[in-house]
Amino acid sequence: MANMPMEVQQHHHTAPTGFIRKYIFSLDHKVIGKQYYFLAIVSVFIGMVLSWLVRIHLVWPAVHIWGLGAFSPAGAPGGVISPEYYLSLLTIHGTLMVFFVLTTAPQAGFGNYALPIQIGAEDMAFPTLNMLSFWVTFLALCALVSTLFVEDGPPISGWTAYPPLSAVGSIAGPGQGMGQNLWAVSIALFCIGSLLGALNFITTTIDLRCKGMTLMRMPVTCWAWLITAILSLLSFAVLFAACVLLILDRNAGTSFFLPSGLLVNGQLQNHSGGSPLLWQHLFWFFGHPEVYIAIVPGFGVISHVLSVFSRKPVLGYKVIVACLLAIGFLSFTVWGHHMFLSGMSPYSGFLFSIPTLIITIPATIVSLLWLGTVFGGRLRFTTCMMFALGFVSVFVTGGLGGMFLAQPSLDIFLHGTYFVVGHFHMVMGVAAIFGMFAGTYFWFPKMFGRMMNERLGKIHFWITFVGVYCIFMPMHFIGLEGMPRRYSSFVNDLMQPLMPVHTFMTIAALITGASQFIFFFNLFWSMYKGPKATENPWESTTLEWTVPSPPPFDNFGGKHPVVYHDAYEYGDVQNGKDYVMQTDPAGQPASS
Amino acid sequence: MGKAFAVVLTIITTVSVAIFVSRHWWFPEVASAHGGAMDHQFVETFVGAAIGFILAQLGLAAFAWKYGERKGETRPIRIFPGGAKWLVVLALVYVGSEIILLEFVGQKVWAAMYFTPPAAGSLQVQVLAGQFAFYFRYPGPDGKFGPIHTSKIDETRGNFFGINPSDPGSKDDIVTVDLAVPVNKPVELLLNSKDMGHGFYVPELRIQQDIVPGMEIPLHFTPTKIGRYNIACNQLCGLGHHTMRAFLEVMPEEDYQKWIVEQASLQ
After folding, report:
1. Is-contact A484 A416, C-beta < 8 A?
2. Are A240 and A192 in contact, with CB atoms under 8 Å apart?
C-alpha cells in the first residue's frame, strides 16, 4: 500500500474560506481534532465541578453551595445537596468522564489531529464522516448535559445504568424518567459517533500512509490509535444495541432486561421474561474494552514522548506493538470480572479471572519497557516529560490494584468498595488524563503555533501529581475496611471512624481541582500570548515536526513526504544533532 | 527537576507502603470460617504487588535522578542491558508465577464458597430485598418455604414477603427484619429481590453477593464470632440506597433458640 502512487492515495480538496466551513462544519482533520479536544475540555470541566460537589456532600452534607439552589431547586433545595441529587451528580460525573473525556480527547482529539500528519496523509480517509462523527458526539453531549436541566433531574442509576433501576421508568426514583431516557439517547448517539470515527481511523491508517511509512515505521501513537479504533468498532456496536434495547424496555413495553413479578414502589410491573444480567453482559462487553479505549492512546503518547525526551529510541518497539495487540485482544475476554458477584455462574467467574490476570503480563511488559526507555537516556524534564513520568507511576500504582480485583475470591470482599473506586480512577482516570496532559504539552506548539508556559506547567504538574495520590491512594485504604461506594452518607454510625479520611480526600480533591485552573489559564493564555513555536521545538523525528507550526491546510503544502527511517532514531550526536528525522534521506540510522 | 521527582516519588512510595504495612486501615477482624483463607490470599497478593510497586516506583525515581541532561551535554545514551529481552523475561517469569500461584492455589477460597454445596443441615434463611429494606424468612418447623407472591406484598399489613397464608409451606414461616443465626453453624441464604438489583455485604464475614430480581441466588457461610454486624446493600438501588441496612446477629445456640421462638410468637 505504501508504494502506491501518491495521486491514488490522497484526495485533494481546497481550503474553505467561510467561517462556518472553516471552523464549525469543517472537514479538516486538524480542526475536528481541536473540536474534539475542546469538547473534552468542556466535559472535563463540568465533570470536575460535579466531582467537587460529590466530595463536598460526602463530608459536609449540610453545607449551602452558592448558586446550586437556584440551579437545581429540586435536587439541592437551598443549595444543600439531597441524597438523590448526590447520585445524579455521580451518574453525570461518571458518564461525562468516561465517555466524553476519556474516549474523546485521547483518541478522537489527538488522534484526529496528529494521525494523518504522522503517517504523511493530507487528511483522514473520510473527511465528511469525520465531521459527522464530531457533530453526532456533540449532540450526545448536549443530550447528556440537558439532563441537568430537566424537571426531575439527571438519572440516579450510575454510569453503568443497571436495570431494573434504569429500565422501569420514573417509578424507580427521581431522574429515572426523562433523565434516564436522555441518558440512553445520549449514549446511543455517542456510540454512533465513535463507530464512524473508528471506521475512519482504521481506513486512514491502512490506506493513507505515505511512501516509505511501513506499519513498523509508524510512531507507537499511530499503532495505539489503530488498535483503539478496532476496539471501538467492536465494542461500541454492542453498547449501541444495548442502549436501543434499554430505550425499548423503557418506552415500548418490551422486557429485554426485566423479569416478571417486579413490584416497584408498590406497583406490580407489566414485564416478563427478561434478565437484568443481559444488560450487564452487554454493557461490560463494551465496558472492559472501553477501559483500554481510554488508556491505549495514552500508552502510545507516553511511549512516544518518553523516547523524545529521553533522547533514546523506544525500547522494544516491536514488543510494545505486540503487547498493545495482545491487550486489545485480551480486553474482549475479561468483561466478566465486573460480574463475579452478579449472580452469574461461579464457574464463569473462575474462567474470567484467568485472562484478567494474564492481561497484566503485556501491561507489565509495556511498563518495564518504559522504564528501560528512560534508563541511560539524557532526560529533558519538560512539563510533557514530567507528565509522562507521572503517567508511568500512576499507571503502575493503579494497575497493581487490579491484581487484587482480578481474583474472584478477593472480590467477594473488595467488590463495590472504595478500593475499586481508587483502582479505576488511578489506572483509567488519572493515567489517561496524564496521557492527555502529556499530549497537550507535547502537541500544543504544533496545534496552536505557540509554546505553553513551562513554569506554569511545572506548578500544574506538581500539584496534580501529589494531589492525585492524596485523593486516590486513601480510597484503597478505606476500601480495605469495606467501605461501600455510591453511598451519599454513612448513616447510623456505619463507617464513622473513616470519615476523617474522606475529609482529607475532599480537601485534596478541591486543591487538585483548583490547580487545574492553572492549566486552563496556561492553555488559553498561551494560545494567544505564548512565544511563537518553531517547526520542531522538541527536536523530534516524526512527520508532524517537518511541517510549519501550525501546519498548512493540506498538512504538507502540496508536497508528498517520503519516509526513510524508523520513528525513534535518537541517540548519539552526529553533525550537531542527536536525532534523525523520519524524512531525512541522508541520515544514518542511529544505533539501537 | 528529575531529582525533585525522584524525591517526591520515593516519599509517596514509602508512605503508601508504610500505611499498608502498618495495617492502620485494614480488614475488620474476620468472623467466618472461610474468611481467614481469604485474608491469607490477600496478603499473598499484597506481597507480590508490593514488590512490583516498590521496584517500579523506585526504579523510575532512580532513573529520573540519575539520567537528567545537563545543558549542552553529549554523553552517549545507554541501551538497557540485553535490550527488551530480559524485561520481557522478567515480566513473564515474575507475573506469570504470581498468576499461577494466585489462580491455582488461591482459587480454593472461591471454590469453597461457590463450587461446594452447603453443609448438610445448614440453617436456611430466605432473604427478600426491596427498596430500601431487607426482610428475612425462616422456614419454621416444617423446614419449607412457601412461594413468594410479589403481588401479595403489602407492607401496611405486615406482609413483607408476599406470603399467601393458604400455601401449606408458608403456614409456619417466620418473617423478621433482622437476621439472627447461631454461631459456628453453617447457614445458607437464599437471596431474592422484589424490585431492583441489590447487594448483600457483610465485611466482617467476608460475604458479598448481588441480589438480582428474577433469580434466587444461594450463598453459604459459617459464622464463627458472636456479634452484631451491619448488612449493607452494595448495589446501587435508588435514592435511599445508602439507608438500606439490616443487622446480622450471630448468637450462642441457646440465645438463638430463644430468639426464634420469640419471633414465631410475633407472627
Report:
1. yes
2. yes
Residue A465: its chain B contacts at CB < 8 A?
8
Q: How far apart are CA B183 and CA B37, in angstroms?
A: 19
Where is B87: in which H helix or E strand? helix B84-100
List the B217-221 sheet strands across, edge first: B174-176, B133-138, B123-130, B187-193, B217-221
Note whether A335 and A382 are same-domain residues.
yes
User: Helix (H, G, I), strand (E, B), or coil: what is residue A151?
Assistant: coil
CATH architecture of the domain B123-266 equals: Sandwich (2.60)
The four Cα atoms B103, B105, B111, B112 give a dihedral, to 10 degrees, of: -150
| Closest partner CB to B49 (pick from A315, A403, A494) | A403
pLDDT tens per residue across span A101-133? 999 999 999 999 999 999 999 999 999 999 999
CB < 8 Å to B108, chain A: 409
Q: What is the CATH classification number for the domain harbouring A211?
A: 1.20.210.10
Q: Could you list the beta-strand ranges (E) of A208-349.
A: 263-264, 267-268
Is residue A12 included in any domain, yes or no? no
Residue A294 domain-assigned?
no
A548 and A473 belong to one structural domain = no
Chain B closest-CA separation from residue A143 CA (Å): 22
* Structure-block grid coordinates of residue B146: 412457601
Q: Is A464 on the interface with B (CB under 8 A)?
A: no
Asked if the peptide bond before residue B132 counts as cis, ω within 30 degrees of 0, the response is yes
What's A171's DSSP letter? G
Q: Would you call B241 and A486 a contact, using CB atoms and an 8 Å cutoff?
A: yes
Last residue of a domain, one of A490, A507, A530: A530
Is the residue at A2 inside a domain? Answer: no
A559 and A461 within one domain = no
Residue range A310-346, pLDDT digits in tens: 999 999 999 999 999 999 999 999 999 999 999 999 9
User: β-strands B133-138, B174-176: how paired?
Assistant: antiparallel
Quote the minimal CA–CA distance from B176 to chain A in Å: 20
- Test A174 with B194 for CB contact under 8 angstroms: no
Contact with chain A for residue B10, Cβ under 8 A: no
- Please check whether residue B38 touches A, CB under 8 A: yes
Query: How far is Cα B122 from Cα A17, in angstroms, rounded to an integer?
Result: 79
Q: Does the beta carbon of A371 lie under 8 angstroms from any beta carbon of chain B?
A: yes
Q: Which among A361, A368, A433 has a CA at the least distance from the CA of A101?
A: A433
pLDDT tens digit sequence for B101-118: 887 777 788 888 888 899
- Which of A341, A411, A490 would you mutate first to test chain B, the one with the most B CBs within 10 A? A341
- Tell me, yes or no, whether A231 and A113 share the same domain: yes
In chain A, DSSP finds a helix count (H) and a strand count (E) of 19, 4
B164 in contact with A at a CB cutoff of 8 Å?
no
Confidence of residue A11 (pLDDT cuts 50, 70, 90): low
| Length of chain B measured in residues | 267
Query: Do both A557 and A469 map to the same domain?
Result: no
One domain for residues A520 and A540: no
The amino acid at B237: C
Q: How many domains does chain A have?
A: 3
Give CA–CA dist B204/B237, Å, rounded.
Answer: 22
Q: Quote the DSSP letter at residue A215.
A: G
Model confidence pLDDT, tens digit, residues A234-282: 999 999 999 999 999 999 999 999 999 999 999 999 999 999 999 999 9
Domain extent for A419: 299-530
A508 and A363 both lie in a single domain: yes
Q: What is the pLDDT of residue A592?
A: 40
- Assess contact for B219 and B265: CB atoms under 8 A: no
Distance from CA of A374 to the nearest CA of B (A): 7
Note whether A361 contacts B91, CB cutoff 8 Å: yes
Q: Is residue A16 part of a domain?
A: no
Q: Is the minimum CB–CB distance between A164 and chain B shorter than 8 Å?
A: yes
- Shared domain for A105 and A232, answered yes or no, is yes
